[in-house]
Amino acid sequence: MEKLEKLEAQLKEWGVDLEKFRAKAETTKEKRKAEHEREIKALRTKLNEAQKKLEELKKAGDAASRELKKGFENAWADLKKAFESATRKFK
């Protein structure tokens, strides 16, 4: 359960980062702003998906199927990669 709490904390941190990205996008030129907004929307979708899968995993508890765990791991890896990329772009 401690691992799930750490994952949940990371998701919350990424949610804060996403808001920072959105605020920064507001100050960019129109062409870049649209690009940033598309990326932020995609990140929000991935973040929501990971949060949903984490909730499913928490509800399943120790009896979580391998398929459910694998689905979460895939969503997590995708989200992590996307946030690393966005962090580089928004700095």
Structure characterization notes:
The structure is a single chain. The chain has helices spanning 2-26, 30-60, 66-90. The chain is mainly α and 91 residues long. It has one domain. α1 packs antiparallel against α2, α1 runs parallel beside α3 and α2 packs antiparallel against α3. The longest helix is centred in the middle third of the chain and has 31 residues, at 30-60. The radius of gyration is 15 Å and the shape is elongated. The protein starts with a helix and ends with a helix. The mean pLDDT is 84.
What are the secondary-structure elements, in order, as H or E? HHH
β-sheet strand percentage:
under 5%
Largest sheet composition: none
In DSSP terms, counting alpha (H) and pi (I) runs of 4 or more, how many helices? 3
Shape: elongated
* Secondary-structure class: mainly alpha
Alpha-carbon Rg, integer: 15 Å
**Total number of beta strands:** 0
- Helical amount: over 70%
- Distance between the amino and carboxyl termini: 34 Å
Mean pLDDT, to the nearest integer, reads 84
Keywords:
91 residues, 0% strand, single chain, 89% helix, elongated, mainly alpha, 3 helices
Secondary-structure blueprint:
Layout: H1 2-26, H2 30-60, H3 66-90
Helix pairs in contact: 1-2, 1-3, 2-3
Q: What would a concise description of this structure say?
A:
The chain has 91 residues and is mainly α. The protein has helices spanning 2-26, 30-60, 66-90.
